[in-house]
Each structure stands twice: as structure tokens, then as C-alpha cells.
## 1
Amino acid sequence: MIEAALMCLALNVYFEARSDTMTGQYAVAHVVINRVQHDKFPDDVCSVVKQSRNDGTCQFSWYCDGKSDRPREPYAWAYAQMVAADVMLGDVTDITLGATHYHANYVRPYWADKLEYTVTYGSHLFYK
């Protein structure tokens, strides 16, 4: 169970934030953990990462984009696994201030105005 959760979290960090700073990667990982702890989301890491919307799209677009989910950049993959482990072990403070959502700085999703902005790290803006 823990091994599966670690894999799901690492994959999400890898595909969502591998080009971000270390801080940005930790922040993306914390959003998943914050969702697990929130009553409006599934209560385990893999279910949060794989959650789909009513329209068939996914919460995290990489998961249902039709592309391979196999990491192809060994260094970035190793780093994502380290970030995931640190966050799952509780070794890193939640720097997102409880964020349950984020988006890249080059898009403006419909929900952004409905949530409270918390911080920006790397190329992502975070909200709760």
C-alpha cells in the first residue's frame, strides 16, 4: 500500500513538475497529500492522482492523456521519487499553506477565481 502510494505520488511529481525547482516539486506533492486529507477528495494517494472528472478528463492531465506513464528521464525520475518519499514521511513542511489545487502560470482555469490563492512556486500557482 505504501509502495503504491509512493509510486503514484512520484509519478505525479514527475509528470506535473519535473522541470520545476525543488520547492515547486515539493509543493505539487503537498497538493496531493492535502487532497487525501480533505473530505471532498478520495482518501488515498493513488485515488487522488487517478481521479477523473464527470466529463472523463482527469484531475491531473498526464494521467489520462493517452501517453506512456513510464518516466523517461532517469535523473528527474529519481528526484521525483525522493520528493515523494520526503513528503509522505512528513519530512517537509507544507509550503502551499494547505493548497488543494494548482495550475501552470500560463493558463487560467475557471475555478481559480473561486478559490483562495496561497502561493506561487516554480511555474505553478496554488490555491485552497
## 2
Amino acid sequence: MALNKPTLELKRHLKGTATNLETTANDILKLAEQMEDVDVTAILQLVNRLYSDADQLKAYADEVKAKRIVRGKAV
């Protein structure tokens, strides 16, 4: 059985947000490479947090796909 429309939208939103986080992390790394006197450790910690959040959102999207998370119609 296919996912209902609200659940499909949730899955798309989770995956899209995860992609945005990964893109932001990549952009931060590129900017940091161009800067002088950058605290590399701090930048890497921030980027690692973004990647971790992206991974968590992807895991939620996988749960939606497996129908362990289902969104119903709004009331």
C-alpha cells in the first residue's frame, strides 16, 4: 500500500531539510578554507553537528517510508 499524501509530504520535507543541512555544512567548509585565522576545531564541530542532524532526518524519512511514522489528515 502506498503512503498517503500527508505522509509523502513529510518524507519529502525531511529529506529536503537533510539535504539543505548537508549543503550548508559544505558551504561552511568552503568558506572556512578561504578565511585566515579560523578555529578549525570549532568549524569542524559545527559542521559535524549539521551532518549529524541531517543523518537523523534521513533516518526519520526512512521510518516514514517503512510506515513506522505516519502522518494523518490535519483536523
